[in-house]
Design brief:
Number of helices: 8
Largest sheet: 8 strands, mixed
Number of strands: 29
Strand content: over 45%
Distance between the termini: 89 Å
Length: about 475
């Protein structure tokens, strides 16, 4: 065994021409125990503000709540009084929208006419009226709508009548038949409230028929399709879950903050075959906004060798005992996360020696280096009397300091392409917007054909869902 080990050394020494030339053999390679040990990234969150157009809610209210109700000629007996009766007729103005947190407030002004009758024991009826020949009294109608999305993606709506009251406390908005001591205002308000409460369940049922799930199922399907970055590079978003956050609104729009849990990845090779998954049940908001995407850059050893040769060829290194001039640099992967760097040189001595080290990538400078480079054992053993000066610190420190390959631009270019492809229109009314805020090194993988440098890019993404998605008219029951 010992003879077998010494044989390549002796053969190389024989070719040295008296010790002035050293040709060390290439270090042995072994990738049998190497695994992809680069850390995986957790899924991130893509915020998707879901906008519901309140026009459908307004239309439903306008259709369900009559613009006119009551009959000024139809007497209504006053409970507890056989001789008193009244009649009313109401005209409602269009609803207006406001918000209080996650609640939609709808209000309208109603104007009404009122009459009161008293049937005395003897003689004809005595009556009085208001709003028939002068300005009609007014009242305010307020409805509270609380929308929710259920786990099964059905729109749940609870509508409450919160107020029917005179618009002001002035005589302008009162209807009192004074000579009868009969306040028609309260009777009209009470009757109008009763009529409105009867139609509210129909409003809830109509709003609940707004189809929320179908448009979102289409979006979910679009998010699962691979996005082409280049001919052999694909961006996959890999959506996994959907969560619902707070609900708020402004003007005629109500917004629900929806968060999609996704694990964006860049995949090399042919178009990935993604097995589609159905839209999952809606869950509560859990994760904070933000996502991480691994950015991988592949660096072929031949390209790295050419770059270092161009960078270092012709440079000289002086040491006690002689000097050498760099002719060529060769980079190889040898397994166990290590690189071998071969140095062809001339000068006081000539030949080729090998160094071994672990590559590192500095994202701040964009440089790939091997700061722990040291002589390969075989090369060190061949540096015997006559060329022992080569084993000094000068050559090793020169390579540690100078043997650096720019790699940041490649990663930045891939990151830029990925972000560009994440800013796109997925479908009508569906816009995906993303930004990268910072990047950090995630690791280096040494493979037989080249190095894989992985960085983790962290940013934020929004999925803008336009109101037109849910603006279709609700189907009839």
């Amino acid at each position: 065994m010992r003879v077998a080990v010494l044989l390549p050394v002796l053969l190389a020494l024989a070719a040295c021409g008296g010790g002035s030339r050293v040709v060390a053999p290439e270090p042995a390679t072994d990738f049998s125990h190497d695994v992809d040990s680069l850390p995986s990234l957790p899924p991130g969150t893509i915020v998707a503000p879901l906008t519901l157009d309140l026009q459908s809610a307004l239309t439903a209210l306008e259709e369900q709540v009559p613009r006119r109700f009551g009959d000024i000629t139809k007497r209504i007996p006053v409970p507890g009084s056989k001789r008193k009766s009244f009649a009313f007729e109401v005209h409602r103005n269009p609803f207006k929208v406001s918000f209080a947190g996650d609640t939609i407030l709808l209000s309208a002004v109603i104007q009404y006419k009122g009459r009161g009758w008293y049937d005395p024991p003897i003689g004809p009826d005595i009556n009085g009226e208001c709003g028939t020949s002068d300005e009609p009294p007014r009242a305010r109608l307020a409805v509270r709508v609380v929308p929710r999305l259920g786990e099964d993606w059905h729109l749940l709506v609870r509508t409450q009548l919160t107020q029917v009251a005179p618009l002001t406390k002035t005589d302008r908005d009162q209807c009192k038949v004074s000579f009868l001591n009969f306040d028609v205002t309260g009777k009209v308000i009470s009757a109008a409230e009763g009529a409105l409460r009867k139609v509210l369940p129909g409003i809830d049922r109509k709003l609940a028929r707004v189809d929320v799930k179908s448009p979102l199922e289409r979006i979910w399907g679009d998010l699962q399709k691979p996005i082409r970055v280049t001919d052999s590079l694909w961006l996959v978003l890999l959506p996994q879950a959907v969560n619902l956050g707070s609900v708020s609104g402004s003007r005629q729009l109500v917004g629900a903050e929806v968060a999609l849990t996704a694990a964006p990845r860049l995949v090399t090779g042919p178009r990935p075959d993604i097995v589609p998954t159905p839209l999952p049940p809606l869950g509560p908001m859990e994760a904070e906004e933000g996502f991480s995407i691994p950015i991988e850059g592949f660096f072929d050893y031949a390209v790295m060798s050419a770059a270092l040769t161009q960078q270092l060829a012709g440079k000289t290194v002086k040491a006690a005992g002689g000097q050498l001039e760099v002719k060529r640099v060769t980079v190889r992967g040898i397994g166990a996360g290590r690189l071998a760097l071969g140095l062809d040189f001339t000068g006081t001595a000539s030949g080729k020696v090998w160094f071994i080290g672990t590559p590192q990538f500095d994202l701040s400078t964009g440089l790939l280096s091997v700061p722990d480079l040291d002589f390969d054992a075989t090369s060190a053993g061949m540096l015997v009397q006559g060329v022992a000066w080569l084993k000094g610190d000068a050559i090793r420190e020169f390579l540690r300091d100078q043997a650096k390959v720019p790699a940041g631009e490649v990663l930045k270019r891939i990151e830029t392409m990925a972000v560009k492809e994440m800013n796109r229109t997925l479908a009508r009314g569906v816009e995906l917007r993303a930004t990268i805020e910072k990047s950090e090194t995630a690791g280096i993988l040494v493979r037989p054909s080249g190095l894989v440098i992985r960085a983790r890019a962290t940013g934020s993404a929004h999925l803008d869902l336009g109101p037109e998605l849910l603006a279709r008219k609700a189907p009839s029951p």
